[in-house]
Design brief:
Number of strands: 4
Shape: globular
Number of domains: 1
Helix content: 25-40%
Strand content: 25-35%
Order of helices and strands: EHEEHEH
Structural class: alpha+beta
Number of helices: 3
CATH class: Alpha Beta
Length: 94
């Protein structure tokens, strides 16, 4: 398993448009990918599959939310690096 932590920076969080973009990119990888919402002390609060738009939207990931993206599988590092890179650049929604 490979994981990285990051912060949602786009002003409207992972709402419909950037959430759909994120999920579409996650589905390009064969690994199982999980998004975990973290609290102020980086403890896990809630997690879901990064490949489900319904579950991602239910996470209520707003601007400033700390998350961890983790993956398990043959392309886990590429998946996590790509997806955290998208979050770090605002998911084309700044």
């Amino acid at each position: 398993m490979y994981a990285k932590k990051t912060v949602i920076i786009n002003k409207s969080g992972l709402h419909a448009r950037p959430g759909s973009f994120f999920v579409r990119e996650a589905k390009k990888f064969s690994s199982d990918i999980t998004i975990t919402r973290l609290d102020g002390e980086d403890k896990p609060v809630k997690n879901c599959s990064a490949k489900s738009i319904a579950l991602v939207m239910a996470m209520m990931l707003t601007k400033g939310t700390r998350i961890e993206i983790s993956a398990r599988g043959e392309d886990e590092q590429a998946a996590v690096d790509t997806l955290t890179g998208l979050v770090d650049t605002g998911l084309n929604d700044l």
